[in-house]
Specification:
alpha+beta, Glutamine Phosphoribosylpyrophosphate, subunit 1, domain 1, 27 helices, 6-stranded antiparallel beta sheet, single chain
């Protein structure tokens, strides 16, 4: 797990190393936390590549990067883990390939030379982002893994392409000016993220998940190389349960591939509990499991439930307790203002967990991301399914048009968000009804939250992104009429891909800790999407199939307890010790004086929340995070 960066010429012309080398070194220093163990650099005339290494597989210096093929025809800088690299290496060795290291990096280079990029990506099981230069074909590739676990940003400058794992490094490397992107901001306010390839910075792009960009002169060719929707299953419910258990077992065992110790983050729920169970089945010994909780908000703690799981297995259970004072210090620490803001406040407890695990000597952690999106774990997903069914009927569409026409003059004058009214608007206008569980400010509220600079632009990037997901589901799914599958598909590519995985990578790598998510093993993902609704959520019980599997393993006291989730008491603390800090940001951040966000609206939301008139915590967190980011990275 590493930090990668580089610059290459789009047309193959020679780069000025005297200009680019210092910028590359500054960029590498900005992402040193991603790879504190080694720094590498390689120059090839039309390309300069850098690498920061976190040594996990093959700790020998011979495995450092950038790494070249023996004949120099391929040059690679790579971030991630290929869990099945040993099997790929054996296949390549049988064909006559010789290896000098035991690293997965060398396997990627040999696999590209043998199978080409598409053939290599079909075979890889893992998480990755890499930049690859093919000298013979005069091509350069930027590649991102299937789910988007590993980030990759890029930007153009006068015929050159700059790329990096994080915006912090790209800002040092890329000579372009930092300006906010109106399209990226508009999407962020609506969805609480800027969907790939958008970012919040004008001229800066994200490589979309499951895609690669090919540069061979001119504009890049974007190629999607994977969809989770290509399979269908005719398994019985019992057979499906066995298949899921086997796939999870394989996924966990793959993620034990490491030359350094592995730990796990354990909540009181099903997902991380099943991972601990499969770790025990795989024979993992001396396993440390970490749980976070709050000293002054015990209702948010899952310690007791986590202890029930920990007692069943041979794990060293470690509890991390934090208070509002520590949280306030973290929020006021400019060094923790991420270069690409995370609109999910769970990054705060995750920060304390990751810091503790790294301090205890761990470099790898397993966690439960992905299970809810794949196996229908959120109440909002079930509501979304019902909405899709309801508004597919003609008479409901007529009612939606009537209600929208009657309510529009009223809701145009109120500050509060009205998601139900926005749902009616979408249904009345024949737009995608379900937008997923990550919703910021509905369209009916845009006139209130947007400042004059943003109101000058007329676009709907959030709606375009969601509509694109609907089109993809219709085109790629073997069961396009499967509405439950559509709901999962939206969650997988929206909240999970753009917020949760972004949060996990950025916060854990801040502490040089690699996070691995067994539920996002691509074979398990494909299996989950292949199962029909009746098998996955029998009787429309949330996460029914997975819970039935877990009940026999973890016991009903874990499986049948109310879902709590990995949470954080921001709502309560915002009415107490954190309120003044948020008010100060709203008073001082230049995102308001520059005209992007309406300051009076934000202060009004905060007053209503502090007085108890409404719960505006999610929206206030989104605005607070955005304002801190703007002040730290753009203003």
């Amino acid at each position: 797990m590493c930090g990668i960066l580089g610059v290459f010429s789009k047309d193959g012309s020679r780069l000025d190393e005297g200009f680019w080398r210092p910028r590359l070194e500054r960029g590498a220093a900005a992402v040193a936390h991603r790879g504190p163990d080694a720094w590498g650099f390689a120059a090839r005339g039309d390309a300069l590549l850098g690498h920061r290494r976190l040594s996990i597989l093959d700790l020998d210096a011979r495995a450092n990067q950038p790494m070249a093929a023996p004949d120099g025809s391929v040059l690679l800088t790579y971030n991630g883990e290929i869990y099945n690299f040993a099997e790929l290496r054996a296949e390549l060795s049988a064909g006559g390939e010789a290896f000098c290291t035991s690293s997965d990096t060398e396997v990627l280079i040999a696999g590209y030379r043998r199978w080409g990029l598409d053939g290599l990506l079909r075979r890889c099981a893992g998480m990755f982002a890499f930049g690859l230069r093919d000298e013979r074909a005069r091509r350069f590739f930027l590649v991102r893994d299937r789910a988007g676990k590993k980030p990759l940003y890029w930007a153009a400058h006068e015929g050159a392409i700059c790329f990096c794992s994080e915006l912090a490094g790209l800002f040092e490397l890329w000579p372009g000016s930092r300006r906010i992107s109106p399209r990226g901001l508009d999407a962020y306010l609506a969805l609480k993220f800027s969907p790939s390839p958008l970012t919040l910075v004008e001229g800066v792009h994200k490589v979309p998940p499951a895609c690669y960009l090919e540069f061979s002169g001119g504009e890049p060719r974007v190629q999607r190389y994977w969809t989770p929707l290509a399979q269908t299953s005719r398994r019985s419910r019992a057979e499906a349960g066995e298949a899921v258990e086997h796939a999870l077992d394989v996924a966990v065992r793959r993620r034990l591939v490491s030359d350094v110790p592995v730990c796990v983050f354990l909540s009181g729920g099903v997902d991380s509990g099943l991972i601990v169970d499969r770790l025990a089945a795989a024979g993992a010994s001396g396993l440390a499991a970490y749980t976070v909780g709050y000293t002054d908000m015990p209702d948010y703690n899952e310690f007791e439930a986590a202890r029930l799981t920990a007692r069943r297995y041979p794990v060293d259970h470690r509890e991390v307790r934090i208070g509002s004072g520590e949280v306030l210090s973290a929020l006021q620490d400019d060094g923790l203002v991420l270069d690409d803001p995370v609109s999910d406040w769970v990054w705060v407890p995750l920060h304390f967990l990751a810091r503790r695990a790294r301090a205890d000597g761990f470099k790898v952690v397993l966690l439960g991301e992905g299970a809810d999106e794949l196996f229908f774990g959120y109440d909002v997903m079930l509501k979304g399914l019902e909405q899709l069914e309801r508004f597919s009927r003609a008479h409901w569409k007529v009612l939606a048009r009537l209600a929208y026409a009657l309510g529009r003059p009223i809701y145009a004058r109120t500050r509060r968000g009205h998601r139900r009214f926005d749902l009616l608007r979408r249904a009345a206008q024949d737009r995608p009804v379900y937008w997923g569980s990550s919703i910021g400010f509905p369209a009916t509220q845009r006139l209130h939250v947007a400042g004059p600079s943003l109101l000058q632009s007329d676009h709907d990037p959030a709606g375009e992104f969601i509509a694109g997901l609907y089109r993809r589901h219709a085109q790629e799914s073997v069961r396009p009429s499967d509405l439950a599958g559509l709901v999962s598909f939206i969650e997988f590519h929206a909240k999970m891909g753009e917020i949760l995985l972004h949060r996990v990578d950025r916060v854990c790598m801040r502490h040089s800790l690699e996070a691995r998510a067994p539920f996002l093993d691509h074979e398990l993902v494909e299996l989950a999407f292949s199962l029909p609704e009746a098998i996955k959520i029998p009787g429309r019980r949330l996460k029914g199939l997975l819970k039935d599997l877990a009940r026999a393993r973890l016991g009903p006291e874990i499986v049948d307890r109310p879902k709590m989730g990995f949470s954080f008491p921001f709502k309560e603390w915002l009415r107490g010790p954190l309120a003044a800090s948020v008010e100060d940001v709203f008073a001082s951040s230049r995102i308001f004086s520059d005209g992007w966000i309406d300051r009076r609206f934000c202060r009004a939301l905060l007053r209503e929340h502090r007085s108890g008139l409404a719960d505006h915590a999610p929206r206030l967190w989104t605005l607070y995070s955005l304002a801190r980011w703007y002040e730290r990275w753009l203003a």
